[in-house]
């Protein structure tokens, strides 16, 4: 009996041991399954992250491809205004590599005239006063060619924190050039309309006076020729002759201005001493008043130098200035010639009352006349013609205000021309 009980206890102990072993194995299996599930989940997450990263890379590559295929420059700057992204179009348009441009201040790359406004717009974005930028800027490239771009940009934020500005530059140089030419054409059209109105006004005024005198004298001669003595008939004939000359002079001036505008007047110069050239020009001068001897004093200053001079152009200019001075009763007239190492200077001043400021402001405008012209005829084209002639000669003419003390003009001619 005791043997049976002992054997039973031994069997029960073995069964308990087997049960405990089974439980340990079951727990180990469960732990292994949990570990496997955990590792599988971790591997899944890693694969998912890797897939997302690959998708991001593929998206970035596609984005870069699309951006590089655009015709616009795509850019991004950080909060310091330094470039951190540019597409390849930048190099195509500017001939500056992206690598050289990245890290540089974007504002420093634009034209000086565009920098203040662009910097102001960037500051507004960084300070939170604005989120978008839309303006026109100029960029001057290495070949000194200025191109114009339409800039459209907006703020870049991460978690509501400003990280920079991204945008695009659209080349509108052709559009700006077309607008500029259109503007110039409109301005020229406006100037032509103004000149046309002034021309009509001038012709109607300047022609009416001599034509009235001609008509009156002709009518008197026709009606009373048998009653007029020789001296009176001669006076009326002289009036007709002077009237015709006045009309012919105006027509000649208009035709000459037209030749200047069409560019048919050319400068053909030869080397001459300025003082000798001026002396010859003064000796050839004939006042419009017959049998009139003008009071002109010529003074040579400094040492003589040879200058390229077109005596025909210079004579026309100086004779016109002398005609104006005599017409405005501004004698005596003084002319000084001076040569320096670089230029020749002709100073002409008279003893008249000078020119009021409102006349000086439009002094070289065609068909504009001063109030001091008395009853003398003239189309108001003299000084305009002089200025154009001096410019054709490669020089400049300026007026020094001397109201109440006469009028002073200074002609400056270069000693060396571009052909020399």
Protein traits:
about 425 residues, alpha+beta, five-stranded antiparallel β-sheet, five-stranded mixed β-sheet, 11 helices, 12 strands
Characterize the structure shown:
There is one protein chain. With 420 residues, this protein is an alpha+beta fold. Helices cover 52% and strands 20% of the residues. Helix 8 (274-283) crosses helix 9. The chain is rod-shaped and about 190 Å long.
Set down the secondary structure blueprint.
Elements: H1 2-69, E1 73-77, E2 83-86, H2 89-94, H3 98-101, H4 106-109, H5 115-126, E3 132-140, E4 146-158, E5 161-171, H6 173-224, H7 230-261, E6 270-273, H8 274-283, E7 296-301, E8 306-309, H9 311-327, E9 333-339, E10 343-349, H10 357-360, H11 382-392, E11 396-400, E12 408-414
Parallel strand pairs: 7-9
Antiparallel strand pairs: 1-2, 1-5, 3-4, 4-5, 6-8, 9-10, 10-12, 11-12
N to C succession of SSEs:
HEEHHHHEEEHHEHEEHEEHHEE
Mean pLDDT across residues: 80
**Major sheet characteristics:** 5 strands, antiparallel
Categorize the overall geometry.
rod-shaped
Weakly predicted, low-confidence segments: 372-376
**Computed CA radius of gyration, to the nearest angstrom:** 46 Å
Strand content: 15-25%
Helix content: 40-55%
Please state how the strands of the largest beta sheet are arranged side by side. 2-1-5-4-3
Q: What is the first-to-last residue Cα distance? A: 145 Å
How many DSSP E strands? 12
Multimeric status of the protein:
single chain
* Separate helix tally: 11
Short description:
This protein has helices spanning 2-69, 89-94, 98-101, 106-109, 115-126, 173-224, 230-261, 274-283, 311-327, 357-360, 382-392; strands at 73-77, 83-86, 132-140, 146-158, 161-171, 270-273, 296-301, 306-309, 333-339, 343-349, 396-400, 408-414. It is α+β, with helices and mostly antiparallel strands.
């Amino acid at each position: 009996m005791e043997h049976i009980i002992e054997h039973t206890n031994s069997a029960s102990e073995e069964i308990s041991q087997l049960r405990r072993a089974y439980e340990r194995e079951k727990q180990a299996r469960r732990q292994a399954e949990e570990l496997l599930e955990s590792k599988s989940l971790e591997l899944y997450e890693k694969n998912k992250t890797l897939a997302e990263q690959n998708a991001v890379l593929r998206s970035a590559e596609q984005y870069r491809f699309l951006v590089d295929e655009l015709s616009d420059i795509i850019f991004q700057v950080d909060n310091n205004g330094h470039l951190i992204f540019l597409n390849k179009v930048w190099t195509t348009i500017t001939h500056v590599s992206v690598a050289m441009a990245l890290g540089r201040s974007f504002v420093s790359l634009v034209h000086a005239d565009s920098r203040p406004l662009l910097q102001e717009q960037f500051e507004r974005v960084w300070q939170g006063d604005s989120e978008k930028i839309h303006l026109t800027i100029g960029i001057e490239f290495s070949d000194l060619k200025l191109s114009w771009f339409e800039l459209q940009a907006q703020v870049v934020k991460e978690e509501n924190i400003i990280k920079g500005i991204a945008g695009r530059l659209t080349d509108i140089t052709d559009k700006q050039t077309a607008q500029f030419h259109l503007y110039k054409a409109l301005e020229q059209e406006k100037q032509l309309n103004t000149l046309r109105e002034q021309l009509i006004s001038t012709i109607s005024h300047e022609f009416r006076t001599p034509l009235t005198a001609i008509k009156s004298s002709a009518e008197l001669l026709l009606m009373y020729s048998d009653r007029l003595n020789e001296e009176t008939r001669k006076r009326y004939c002289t009036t007709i002759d002077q009237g015709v000359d006045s009309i012919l002079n105006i027509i000649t001036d208009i035709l000459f201005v037209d030749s200047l505008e069409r560019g048919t007047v050319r400068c053909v110069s030869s080397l001459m001493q300025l003082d000798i050239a001026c002396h010859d020009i003064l000796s050839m001068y004939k006042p419009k008043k017959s049998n009139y001897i003008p009071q002109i004093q010529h003074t040579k200053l400094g040492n003589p130098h040879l200058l390229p001079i077109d005596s025909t152009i210079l004579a026309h200019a100086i004779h016109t200035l002398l005609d104006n001075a005599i017409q405005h009763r501004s004698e005596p007239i003084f002319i000084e010639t001076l040569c320096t190492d670089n230029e020749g200077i002709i100073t002409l001043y008279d003893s008249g009352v000078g020119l009021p400021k409102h006349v000086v402001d439009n002094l070289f405008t065609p068909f504009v006349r001063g109030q001091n012209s008395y009853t003398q005829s003239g189309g108001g084209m003299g000084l305009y013609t002089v200025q154009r002639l001096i410019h054709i000669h490669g020089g400049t003419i300026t007026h020094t205000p001397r109201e109440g003390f006469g009028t002073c003009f200074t002609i400056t001619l270069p000693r060396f021309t571009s052909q020399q």
